[in-house]
Write a structure and sequence with these properties.
Layout lengths: L4 H14 L1 E6 L4 H4 L5 E3 L1 H10 L4 E5 L2 H10 L4 E3 L8 H4 L3 H10 L5 E4 L4 H5 L3 E3 L4 H6 L5 E5 L2 H10 L4 E4 L12 H10 L3 E5 L5 H6 L2 E2 L2 H11 L3 E5 L3 H7 L6 E2 L14 H10 L8 H18 L1
Parallel strand pairs: 1-2, 1-3, 3-4, 5-6, 5-7, 7-8, 9-10, 9-11, 11-12
Helix pairs in contact: 1-14, 3-4, 4-15
Bound molecules: 1,3-dihydroxyacetonephosphate and iron/sulfur cluster.
């Protein structure tokens, strides 16, 4: 922590001067998560927080789609992205034209779009979802057929949870979670029968089926905090276990994890630079933002 201390001090000072808050995703490294974030959480919690915070500036310690969501919900605030290259393989997998293609394939079906998308894709959709409310949002649609974009695995996991719906999907995937296989989990369990396996729903459905629990990043934190298993393997991004290990000394976090190269682009140095120079301001075209806001707000209203 000693090497981080000067950055943490400078960032926290600049936050006061700029009336800024830092919204930190659960996949941030511990020095960002614990050292400078004012609020931490999963995608849904951070989106809701963006509508509530009383600040002039939001620094999004996460990936670009999260900053766009904050800007869509708080157009009058300055939203800073410490590294514009912090993208997401899901957001890259689909454009607004892809959404229209799905509408042509399934006429009349509503489009439920994961928040891991650009503002244009959200604007072309009917409603958004996150991993913590996807099943609830799909179940609430009137139509029997529901289009989910762009995460095929989240869609397949939701399809199992909401069997009354005919869920159809776009073929996108997360480069972090698609790497896990059901065989990995079976092999691990054979040698570690007393370890609780906990998977994010961006993992393929056969991986989720092998796990003891599946949930959003905050759902995973809640599960481990409530259950306090002796040993836990978090089948998700590496920083998750690092961020909660200190508060849960009774849980032994074991096993391999996968790193998100996009989330890991955010560093204390870049947060400091963004706040100091006020560079990395996220802008969303006003017409696109108006339409995208409807999709995000419908999701928030249904999730309350
Ligand atoms: P959560 O909404 O569960 O935090 O997921 C966001 C994400 O990008 C997971 O890969
Ligand atoms: Fe995107 Fe996957 Fe990284 Fe999340 S973990 S930001 S879904 S690439």
């Amino acid at each position: 922590w000693a090497i981080y201390a000067p950055y943490v001090k400078a960032i926290n000072q600049l936050k006061k001067e700029r009336n800024a808050v830092i919204l930190g995703h659960n996949y941030m490294t511990p020095e960002i998560f614990h050292g400078v974030s004012d609020f931490v959480g999963d995608s849904l919690q951070l989106a809701i927080k963006a509508t509530e915070v009383d600040a002039d500036v939001i620094v999004q310690a996460g990936v670009h789609f999260m900053a766009e969501t904050s800007k869509i919900l708080s157009p009058d605030k300055t939203v800073l992205m410490p590294d514009m290259e912090a993208g997401c393989s899901l957001a890259e997998s689909i454009t607004a034209e892809g959404v229209e293609e799905m509408r042509r394939r399934y006429p009349g079906a509503p489009v439920v779009t994961y928040v891991n998308t650009t503002a244009e894709v959200k604007a072309a959709s009917d409603i958004c979802c996150t991993s913590s409310n996807a099943a609830q949002i799909v179940a609430a649609q009137e139509s029997h057929t529901v289009i989910m974009t762009p995460d095929q695995y989240l869609a397949q996991n939701v399809a199992k949870d909401v069997p009354q719906k005919n869920v159809v999907w776009w073929e996108g995937s997360c480069i972090v979670h698609e790497q896990y296989t059901a065989k990995d989990l079976r092999d691990f369990r054979e040698w570690n029968p007393d370890t609780r396996l906990i998977a994010h729903p961006e993992c393929p459905p056969d991986v989720v089926a092998e796990a003891d629990f599946s949930g959003s990043t905050s759902g995973i934190i809640k599960y481990v905090t409530d259950e306090k298993p002796q040993k836990a393997l978090l089948i998700t991004e590496c920083s998750m276990a690092s961020n909660i290990a200190d508060e849960l000394p009774e849980v032994d976090f074991v096993g391999p994890c996968n790193m998100c190269p996009f989330m890991k682009k955010i560093s204390l140095e870049k947060v400091l630079y963004a706040l100091d120079t006020m560079t990395g301001q996220v802008e969303v075209d006003a017409l696109v933002a108006d339409k995208a806001r409807l999709s995000v707000q419908r999701m928030i209203d249904l999730s309350r």
